[in-house]
Amino acid sequence: MPLVYIGLGSNKGDKEKNIKKALGYLKKKIKVHKVSSLYLTEPVGVEGGWFVNCALEGETEKKPKNLLQELLQIEYRMGRRRTGTKGSRVIDLDLLLYGEMVSYEEDLILPHPRLHKRKFVLIPLIEINPHLYHPVLRKPLKAILNTLEDPHQVKKIIH
């Protein structure tokens, strides 16, 4: 089974509770190996308050498009409606990596097209697997992060 990496984010309502609820749903759909710490992150290209973000590593026998549909169903179940606007989100689930698969289909782009441009995605991914590399850029995610010019803040949440 391929390793999959999913990004989770929320900037509406009880953000940490939303993340935990989404993780509960995901654990019923895939075998979850690791979940990163939670991070408080400045919004990038989205209106609204700061996000709580994390990432998970898991395994699944589901095909990539089927897994993506499962993520969209969880978002819908939790109250997210994709209206095309860049507003606040109860939950945002992104399929970041599916093994080493590269896809440029209209409804499935892998790796996630903005994965290498965002600290709030790279930092949690590197936390759970410091050896990950970008299958298109053929660079370690750590190297990408070290040269990234992203001014948005990412702060680990410590309880």
Automatic annotation (TrEMBL):
| Key words of the record | ATP-binding, Folate biosynthesis, Kinase, Nucleotide-binding, Transferase
What is its pathway? Cofactor biosynthesis; tetrahydrofolate biosynthesis; 2-amino-4-hydroxy-6-hydroxymethyl-7,8-dihydropteridine diphosphate from 7,8-dihydroneopterin triphosphate: step 4/4
Report the superkingdom from the record: Bacteria
Question: So which residues are the signal peptide here?
Answer: none
GO biological-process terms attached to the record? folic acid biosynthetic process; tetrahydrofolate biosynthetic process
List each copy of the 7,8-dihydro-6-hydroxymethylpterin-pyrophosphokinase domain by range.
Answer: 5-130
Decide whether keyword Kinase is in the record: yes
Concerning InterPro entries, the annotation shows: Hppk, Hppk_sf
Q: Report the EC number(s), separated by commas if there are several.
A: 2.7.6.3
**What GO molecular functions are on record for this protein?**
2-amino-4-hydroxy-6-hydroxymethyldihydropteridine diphosphokinase activity; ATP binding; kinase activity
Kindly list the residue ranges recorded as spanning the membrane: none
Record carries keyword Nucleotide-binding = yes
Q: Identify the Gene3D superfamilies for this entry.
A: 7,8-Dihydro-6-hydroxymethylpterin-pyrophosphokinase HPPK
Concerning Pfam families, the annotation shows: HPPK
- Protein known as: 2-amino-4-hydroxy-6-hydroxymethyldihydropteridine diphosphokinase
Q: Which source organism? A: Aerophobetes bacterium
